[in-house]
Automatic annotation (TrEMBL):
Molecular function as annotated in GO: transmembrane transporter activity
Lipid bilayer topology: Multi-pass membrane protein
Family annotation (CDD domains): TM_PBP1_LivH_like (cd06582)
One GO cellular component, as annotated: plasma membrane
Domain of life: Bacteria
TM region(s), chain numbering: 6-27, 34-54, 60-82, 94-115, 144-163, 190-209, 215-234, 241-259, 265-286
Protein name: Amino acid/amide ABC transporter membrane protein 1, HAAT family
Species of provenance: Geodermatophilus nigrescens
Pfam families hit by this protein: BPD_transp_2
Keywords of the record: Amino-acid transport, Cell membrane, Membrane, Transmembrane, Transmembrane helix, Transport
PANTHER family with a match to the protein in the record: ABC TRANSPORTER PERMEASE PROTEIN (PTHR11795:SF451), BRANCHED-CHAIN AMINO ACID TRANSPORT SYSTEM PERMEASE PROTEIN LIVH (PTHR11795)
Annotated localization: Cell membrane
GO biological process terms on file: amino acid transport
Keyword match Secreted: no
Amino acid sequence: MQEFVNLTLGGVITGSVYAAFALALVLIWRSTRIVNFAQGAMAALTTFIAIALIDAGQSYWVGLVVALLSGLVIGAVVERVVIRPVEGGPELNAVIVTLGLFIAIQALISVLFGVNQRAFVPPFSNIGFRIGDTTLGSLSPNTVYTLIAVLLVMVALIALFRFTRLGLAMRASAFGQEVARLLGVRVGRMLTLGWALAAVVGSLAGMLIAAETAFVAPTFMDSLIVFGFVAAVLGGLDSPIGAVVGGLVLGVALSYVRGYLGDTLVGLAALVILVVVLLVRPGGLFSTTQTRRA
């Protein structure tokens, strides 16, 4: 029973990390209708910037703020310089560009910060809470911080897109640029803002993931790109709530697979979940008919 509880808690914590990355994908999809496969590399770059500051004697929180601000700037620059020339063309063009950007940013990280693993000290303890004589190894102050951060981001995104004119303008720019322009929306600015905000959320995800793993390397986000994408598709690329639920469901499911069947089947299990979702409910668990038609 204790093993089941630990696997479940571990899955929830891992799933919250998947959810953080999935939220970044959802944000950029809702605001630009592009799936950014370079999101992980961009998050890794801002995480290494934060680590450089922390190693220089700054606190984790200073590093976090600088990472978020760096993500904001990098996201805006990438949209203006790299993505803007292919926006409005065939959708495959943007996908290929983001894949190329992923490779380029990873190479840049290796050049600037080296290829070796580096330790990352989490802001809170990773020692599990004790309940009586039982230690919950998967639930610690740091994992609670991760869960709270992910939930706050989810609430912020829901509020942005449902209750603000800015969120409405961003969605209008993504779905119909010409109509949005006729209504007075500055489409170019909205697309740039969408990329910038998505990069901020991705930077937060990178910091949370680094705190959970305690080690980072230029490729430390690679597996999270896959699992975060599956989580986003599972919940629905248009739904922040779906991203969180999809991340948690995926995390728990893969935790059970890892605990009872072994690590070698984790990747296969994620693939099976992705295929089943695409066959049964292509828009994700939280999709609507209107979303799929859009």
